[in-house]
Amino acid sequence: MRFIATIIWAFVLSAVAAFVLTSMSGDPYDMSLVIVMTIIFSLGVWTVSAVLPKGEEHE
């Protein structure tokens, strides 16, 4: 479930970022840019979560 949530949030944030960046530069909105950014963000989040140590559990 966490992988699906990561992909959904990465897609939403990528779509917003691509919309803002293309609007500021005057270029047409490109969905392939959103897909590439989604893949990069998802892989980055999964890599960081795998590398960082787990927190201590308190009883």
Describe it:
By secondary structure, this protein is mostly helical. It is 76% helix and 0% strand. α1 packs across α2. It has a domain of 37 residues. The protein contains two helices and no strands.
Question: Descriptors for this entry?
Answer:
76% helix, mainly alpha, 2 helices, 59 residues
Mean pLDDT score: 90
Structural class determined from secondary elements: mainly alpha
Order of helices and strands: HH
Q: What shape does the CA trace take? A: elongated
Major sheet summary line: none
- Low-confidence runs of at least 5 consecutive residues: none
Helix content: over 70%
Separation of the first and last Cα atoms: 26 Å
Percent strand equals under 5%
Rounded Rg: 15 Å
Topology overview:
Elements: H1 2-25, H2 31-51
Produce a short descriptive summary.
With 59 residues, the protein is mostly helical.
